[in-house]
Amino acid sequence: MGNNMNKLKALRLKIGKLILDKSSRSPFQKSLEHPKSFLFLRQDGKIGDYIVSSFVFREIKKFNPLIKIGVICTKQNAYLFQKNHNIDEIYLVKKRSILDYIKTALLIRKERYDVVIDPTIVLRNRDLLLLRILNARNYIGYRKADYNIFNINITKDGHFSEIYKEALAQSNISLSDESYDIPQDGSTKEEILQFITDNKLNNYITINFYGAGKNRKFNDAHIIDYLAYIRNHRKCPLVLLSTPDTHEHLSRIANQFDDVFVYPNSRTTIYHTIELIRNCTLLISVDTSTIHIASGLNKPIICFYSQDKENFTHWHPNSKNVCHIIHYRDNVNALSPREIKPEWLDI
After folding, report:
1. Across all residues in the chain, what is the average pLDDT?
2. Among 49, 79, 303, 310, which has the highest number of CB atoms less than 10 A from its own CB?
3. What is the 3-state secondary structure (H, E, C) of the chain?
4. 92: pLDDT confidence band, cut at 50, 70 and 90?
């Protein structure tokens, strides 16, 4: 059944490409020499993707404050871009609605953007339709040599931040600073500082036990084993990073220990997570979004990655601080807490 579904999906993509993949008729080079506007496609909704690309908006504005920056995103991840004062326009699309894609693309088409940057590897038909309707002057893509609509194709492999740097280089935008822009919310910052003060959380470690996908989620038995192991080798408070979906469950686990905490507000946001990482001494995580946040905040990290080499190439920790990486084959629960060397905890 799964194999047939994959074949059907591949066929749909092939037919869509045949119908929709047309090259732009615009003269390319002139608008790439001195671009006046950029449009980024970011409807993927992933926090980590935003973090690793966050520097590009700042660097474009530093190069020329008059350059217009637009972002296409979903309602679910718009809050990240709305906090970024370097972004001029945010266009919302409903992720699975072709009609909404068409409506939004027709609205943006009037702007006639000089450069559209789409770094996604797999291009769905609705994305290709959106690109076609936009009628931009230039399209920069990643691994899109076999697509006509992209007049600039980035072939270099590496971390996704490097792919964004290359997209700016192709647009004649020079970079002076590649550090991530980690968003901050003032009221959330104060909430977390109060939480730290109230609980006397000096030199605490943050831990994220849940990543995307069942193979990247620690089960309860392993969470308890890791907490006991870490506390045995480092006498300091531990703060478990939670989401509204995991808050109650992690709180019950934390209550089994004297010095393990979960932020008490069950309606936590990514800004709570950011502030907890900003104030910690070390992050331990299986989740790449928190790994990227810690990298941007220059925190020491102990992280878990699968043995998928391509995924690691694209999303490894881009950090100048101490970073210990533990690889697992199929499921993170196959690992033992002893993979974490006691000296790694002495930060």
Report:
1. 90
2. 303
3. CHHHHHHHHHHHHHHHHHHHCCCCCCCCHHHHHCCCEEEEECCCCCHHHHHHHHHHHHHHHHHCCCCEEEEEECCCCHHHHHCCCCCCEEEECCCCCHHHHHHHHHHHHCCCCCEEEECCCCCCHHHHHHHHHHCCCEEEEECCCCCCCCCEEECCCCCHHHHHHHHHHHCCCCCCCCCCCCCCCHHHHHHHHHHHHHCCCCCCEEEECECCCHHHECCHHHHHHHHHHHHHHCCCCEEECCCCCCHHHHHHHHCCCCCEEECCCCCCCHHHHHHHHHCCCEEEECCHHHHHHHHHCCCCEEEEEECCHHHHHHHCCCCCCCEEEEEECCCHHHCCHHHCCHHHHCC
4. very high
- Angstrom distance (rounded) from CA 155 to CA 141: 9
CB 276 within 8 A of CB 289: no
Query: Above 80 in pLDDT, residue 12?
Result: no
The residues, any chain, with a CB within 8 Å of residue 119's CB and separated by 6 or more, are: 53, 141, 142, 154, 160, 163, 164, 167
Contacts of 121 (CB under 8 A, 6+ apart): 142, 143
Share of the chain above pLDDT 90, in %: 75
CB atoms within 10 A of CB 246: 19
Query: What is residue 46's predicted lDDT score, i.e. its pLDDT?
Result: 81
Q: Kindly indicate the confidence band of residue 89, based on its pLDDT and cuts at 50, 70 and 90.
A: very high
Of the pLDDT bands very low, low, confident and very high (cuts 50, 70, 90), residue 25 is very low
